């Protein structure tokens, strides 16, 4: 129950293809997060799963049954909208009770279910108020309450927290994770917010212009991005990408020329890449002061001190449009325009070919998770 | 310690000279708006002889409500005229609402081929002066056999009132977020259920405004239809009834004014009750802004 498959799903609006053939299998009880830049089709894909948007091509399958032409209720799906979409003239109680009233449930059943949902969401004291009298966080909880009373197999959320302030968002994030554990239902969650994606998701789906760029567990996307798009999208500040020349391959990996230094990256080589222009990726937080397997001299043009960390931005010669970014522990001092030497380790580096496709990194995610813990 | 009990927000607080200016503006506006009514009311209080005295006196001497009593005797059928006006306006308003509420919803929510054209046609029709169409309408009424019935005054009125009512209500309904429809649809509600339980209550302030505007429209436009399509005294509405105070030799001005005030009283009462249901800001909290 609550298993969902998307099979080559396509959505076109007039002449414009917005979702371009998406394949995805979601298992029961999974928490899936869709992320991607604005306009990449996250909401559209979610609305197709919901049954609000007609599917132009492909199949949406829930629990082994093709549901393309079924109404939302028949799909066992509930949705929490980007705008809360509460009924302003109804009390909180009636808002949450609405799906049950539609079903024609008896008053006793309605009262019992609404009160149960209200208790889970800490809305017990608010049941007789109208949405207009509630704060943003409370409204969002009412919207969630309306979704859970129907006990759906699959929950859909479209940026439910985007208009809450930072601390409320953090609270709601934890509350949603708790709710997911408690209900055990499948959840599909759209967000712009990387922190939400990284902390809540079992698996993240990164969308780029209607395609899936990569699907994977949060740390998998962080450590083994398939392409430069995912590499740039996951992680904040974004990964630095530097053009390098490949000088050779060996059992140890791919050797590149980095700033006149020879650097061998532990990635699976491919045939015929010698002499090719590649992109070396290094996350700002993996750069350190002093020497490393390779090093470079930088003169920061902007320095941001956040206390815990210090972020330095550098304009590299030949790359004036883009910043090279370094994240250092807050205890280390760098100053604007004062040259310092920074180093990076070969094991931390990513390597991409001319098309932005990643070379497989030779790292064990389980090992990384273990050392991180 | 002195505590400021003023609950107005800061933006609603004014300095003394702003307050003076605001009240001055309101006074000037109200004076222009109400002065004919004030004078009309004063006239209704004056004895007839005083009205023709020279020089003209604005304030009544020996003012009394005598005209409000005698008016019923001068024109015995007057109560019937009021009833007719009231009936015609009420039936017309009800019909307009029954037709316009679903139509406005359809125009607000559904996209269909030729919608723009239909809406433009409505606008064009409502710009026609009713007078231009009186003769064709007369022939239509005669063909339909509606001459000299209440319907002769109701049906054309409804037709003329519908276009602007649709435009007004459609605009109001378009402001109701479509997410509410989608949320209800997700919860399994049918179009009709959603319309009745979600859209209709939220649109109520708009519907009441349309009802008021339509009622006033029906009240004021009926006499032109009455004079053209009806010759039966017992169906005549109020404005026609007022002509009865124009006697052969003289106009009984004080009774005419008294009758005018009595005549609009039912309309005022209806409007008063309708506007009490006007609740502002009903959509507050529906979606996050
Ligand atoms: N009804 C529609 N008609 C035409 N184009 C549409 C429609 N709805 C969405 N689109 C287009 O589809 C694309 C994807 O929209 P969608 O709302 O799915 O983006 P999104 O990823 O949710 O973006 P955001 O993060 O800004 O919410 C956009 O380019 C948008 O302009
Ligand atoms: Mg969206």
Explain briefly what this protein structure is:
The complex is a heterodimer of chains A (373) and B (289). With 373 residues, chain A is of the alpha+beta class.
Describe this structure in words.
The complex is a heterodimer of chains A (373) and B (289). Chain A has helices spanning 42-50, 72-75, 92-103, 107-120, 136-148, 166-183, 194-200, 218-223, 228-233, 365-372; strands at 4-13, 16-26, 31-35, 57-62, 65-66, 77-80, 154-158, 186-190, 203-208, 211-216, 240-250, 253-258, 261-265, 277-282, 287-289, 294-298, 302-305, 309-315, 323-329, 340-344, 350-352. Chain A is α+β, with helices and mostly antiparallel strands and 373 residues long. Chain A folds into 2 domains: 4-229, Rossmann fold (3-Layer(aba) Sandwich); 230-372, RNA polymerase II/Efflux pump adaptor protein, barrel-sandwich hybrid domain (OB fold (Dihydrolipoamide Acetyltransferase, E2P)), CATH 2.40.50. A 6-stranded mixed sheet of chain A has the order 6-7-8-3-9-10, sandwiched between helices. In chain A, a hairpin with a 2-residue loop joins strand 9 and strand 10 (211-216). Chain A is elongated, with a radius of gyration of 24 Å. Chain A starts with a strand and ends with a helix. By secondary structure, chain B is an all-alpha fold. Chain B has 11 helices and no strands. Bound molecules: adenosine-5'-triphosphate and magnesium ion.
Key words describing this protein structure:
heterodimer; A: 373 residues; alpha+beta; Rossmann fold; OB fold (Dihydrolipoamide Acetyltransferase, E2P); six-stranded mixed beta sheet; five-stranded antiparallel beta sheet; 10 helices; 21 strands; 26% helix; B: 289 residues; mainly alpha; MetI-like fold; 2 domains; 0% strand; binds adenosine-5'-triphosphate; binds magnesium ion
Outline type of chain A = elongated
The total count of strands of chain B amounts to 0
Note the total helix count of chain B. 11
The low-pLDDT segments of chain A are none
CA gyration radius of chain A, whole angstroms:
24 Å
Oligomer: heterodimer
What is the CATH architecture annotation of the largest domain in chain A?
Answer: 3-Layer(aba) Sandwich
Structural class of chain A: alpha+beta
Q: What is the number of domains of chain A? A: 2
Largest interface: A-B, 32 and 23 residues
The secondary-structure element order of chain B is HHHHHHHHHHH
Strand content range of chain A: 25-35%
CATH H-level superfamily of the largest domain in chain A: P-loop containing nucleotide triphosphate hydrolases
């Amino acid at each position: 129950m609550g298993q969902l498959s998307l099979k080559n799903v396509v959505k076109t609006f007039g002449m414009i293809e917005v979702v371009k053939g998406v394949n995805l299998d979601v298992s029961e009880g999974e928490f899936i997060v869709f992320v991607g830049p604005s306009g990449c089709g996250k909401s559209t894909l979610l609305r197709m799963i919901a049954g609000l948007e007609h599917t132009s091509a492909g199949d949406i399958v829930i629990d082994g049954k093709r549901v393309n032409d079924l109404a939302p209720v028949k799909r066992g799906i509930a949705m929490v909208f980007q705008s809360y979409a509460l009924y302003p003239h109804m009390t909180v109680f009636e808002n949450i009770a609405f799906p049950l009233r539609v079903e024609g449930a008896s008053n006793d059943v309605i009262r019992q279910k609404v009160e149960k949902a209200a208790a889970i969401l800490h809305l017990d004291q608010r049941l007789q108020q109208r949405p207009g009298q509630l704060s943003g966080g409370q409204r969002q909880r009412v919207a969630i309450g309306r979704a859970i009373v129907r006990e759906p197999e699959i929950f859909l959320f479209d940026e439910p927290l985007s208009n809450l302030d930072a601390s409320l968002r953090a609270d709601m994030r934890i509350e949603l994770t708790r709710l997911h554990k408690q209900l055990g239902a499948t959840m599909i969650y759209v967000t712009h917010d990387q922190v939400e994606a990284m902390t809540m998701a079992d698996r993240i789906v990164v969308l780029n212009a209607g395609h899936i760029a990569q699907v994977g567990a949060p740390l998998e996307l962080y450590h083994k991005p398939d392409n430069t798009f995912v590499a740039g999208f996951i992680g904040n500040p974004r990964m630095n990408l530097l053009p390098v020349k490949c000088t050779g391959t060996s059992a140890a990996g791919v050797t590149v020329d980095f700033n006149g230094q020879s650097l061998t990256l532990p990635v699976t080589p491919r045939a015929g890449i010698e002499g090719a222009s590649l992109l070396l990726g290094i996350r700002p937080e993996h750069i350190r002061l002093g020497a490393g397997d390779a090093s470079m001299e930088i003169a920061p043009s902007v320095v941001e001190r956040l206390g815990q960390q210090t972020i330095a931005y550098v304009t590299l010669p030949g790359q004036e449009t883009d910043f090279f970014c370094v994240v250092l522990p807050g205890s280390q001092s760098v100053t604007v325009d004062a040259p310092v030497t920074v180093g990076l380790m070969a094991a931390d580096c990513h390597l991409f070919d001319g098309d932005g496709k990643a070379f497989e990194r030779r790292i064990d995610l389980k090992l990384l998770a273990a050392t991180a813990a | 310690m002195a505590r400021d009990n003023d609950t107005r927000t800061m933006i609603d607080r004014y300095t003394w000279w702003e307050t003076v200016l605001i009240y001055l503006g309101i006074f000037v506006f109200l004076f222009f708006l109400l002065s004919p009514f004030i004078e009309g009311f004063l006239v209704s209080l004056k004895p007839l002889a005083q009205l023709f005295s020279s020089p003209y006196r604005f304030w009544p001497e020996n003012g009394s409500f005598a005209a409000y009593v005698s008016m019923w005797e001068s024109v015995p059928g007057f109560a019937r005229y009021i009833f007719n006006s009231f009936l015609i306006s009420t039936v017309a308003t009800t019909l307009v609402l029954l037709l316009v509420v679903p139509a406005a919803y359809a125009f607000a929510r559904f996209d269909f081929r030729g919608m723009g054209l239909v809406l433009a046609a409505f606008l064009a029709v409502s710009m026609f002066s009713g007078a231009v169409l009186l003769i064709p309408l007369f022939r239509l009424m005669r063909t339909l056999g509606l001459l000299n019935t209440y319907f002769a005054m109701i049906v054309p009125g409804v037709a003329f009132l519908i276009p602007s009512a649709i435009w007004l209500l459609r605009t109001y309904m378009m402001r109701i977020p479509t997410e509410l429809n989608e949320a209800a649809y997700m919860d399994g509600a049918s179009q009709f259920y959603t319309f009745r339980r979600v859209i209709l209550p939220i649109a109520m302030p708009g519907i009441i405004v349309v009802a008021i505007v339509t009622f006033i429209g029906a009240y004021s436009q009926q006499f032109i239809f009455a004079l053209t399509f009806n010759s039966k005294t017992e169906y005549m509405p109020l404005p026609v009834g007022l002509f009865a105070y124009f006697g052969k030799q003289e106009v009984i001005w004080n009774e005419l004014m008294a009758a005018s005030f009595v005549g609009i009283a039912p309309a005022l009462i209806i409007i008063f009750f309708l506007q009490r249901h006007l609740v502002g800001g009903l959509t507050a909290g529906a979606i996050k802004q």
